[in-house]
Amino acid sequence: MSQCYRMLFLTTVIGLTGCAGSRIGRMPDAPAPPPPPPPAKAQALDASLRQRAKEELAKDVDSNDAVVRANAIEAIQDSVGDEGKDAIENGLSDPSPLVRFSAAMATGTLRLADARIALLGLVNDPNPHVRIGVRYALHRLGDTHLSHELETTSRDFDPHVRADTALALGLLGEKSALNVLEPMLTDPDPDVRIQVAEAMWRLGSEEGLTNLVAGSVSSYADDQIICLLALAAPKDYRVAEHLHGRLTADYPQVALAAARGLGELGSDAGYGVAMADLKSKDPRIVVMAALALGAIGRSDAQPLLSPLLADGDQSVRLAAATAILELKAQS
């Protein structure tokens, strides 16, 4: 993503190169209608299954692969929150800047006050992305003395740095950031422009919404995936109809992004799409299907997700663990 943080799974799901991304091709025509969601069946949350999922996250956060460790930290943030603060705070001293960035962003998102001293030790980290994450986290903890530097990084020569700056500004949730973001709408890099549009939409900008809707019907599937997820991020139900229309996308990952986005909005309309794609032989599609079921949150997805914890692909196991921990008890 640079959307490195918002959807680190994209590095394995659609084969993005680094953080910048690559265009994976034009969409075919004639999409098939999506399968309808089956009736929901209330199930109690399985404590033993949730424990297995937590054990998987614990293994992944200690992986030899930095991308897996970074993904695991984001998964911990999204699924167990404060319960995983030790793993997140340990990530601040990881040798990989990608992991340190992910940990700093998670620290800020969860407002882990105990990490403040560690964050101050990273203020001058040699990696610019880590420095952005640290400034975001400190701001979220009430220390704003370095926040003005995000205006400088918004003009950095590196488009990845500009994109991560936009990401941080959007997540801070302060409308004053629009003064920095609006000039970035004409950035020469398309990935930066998408991230800027998402940040602006998070801050309530209709211009950001318009740009994301346009990107969600781009000629390029990876742009569509990113924009669909970004549309759902503020949880504004006005975008639900548009997301529902993308469930018929012929390219499965685009449809799964729409299903996940609808799940974030509280709709299970994409449940049937995700359930069908769990059977794919492509682990990238299975990852997105699992994450969609997690976002939808139906407890009757437990039997579908449980076998994936034993999958041979680590990214599938991580996605399944994340999804299982996101499921909600239903009455």
What do we call the CATH topology?
Leucine-rich Repeat Variant
CATH class: Mainly Alpha
Which structural class best describes the helix and strand composition?
mainly alpha
- Low-confidence parts lasting 5 or more residues at pLDDT below 50? 1-9, 14-22
User: How much β-strand is present in the residues?
Assistant: under 5%
Domain count: the total is 1
How confident is the prediction overall: mean pLDDT?
92
> Helix coverage percent of residues?
55-70%
Oligomer: single chain
Measured between the Cα atoms of the first and last residue, the distance is 36 Å
Largest sheet: none
Helix count, DSSP H or I runs of 4 or more residues: 19
CATH level-two architecture = Alpha Horseshoe
Question: Quick one: overall form?
Answer: globular
**Using DSSP, what is the number of strands?**
0
What letter string, H or E per element, gives the SSE order?
Answer: HHHHHHHHHHHHHHHHHHH
Radius of gyration: 19 Å
Written description of the protein model:
56% of the residues lie in helices and 0% in strands. By secondary structure, the chain is mostly helical. The chain has a single domain (10-326), classed as Leucine-rich Repeat Variant (Alpha Horseshoe), CATH 1.25.10. It starts with 9 loop residues before the first helix and ends in a 5-residue tail after the last helix.
Please describe the structure with a list of short key phrases separated by commas or semicolons.
331 residues, mainly alpha, Leucine-rich Repeat Variant, globular
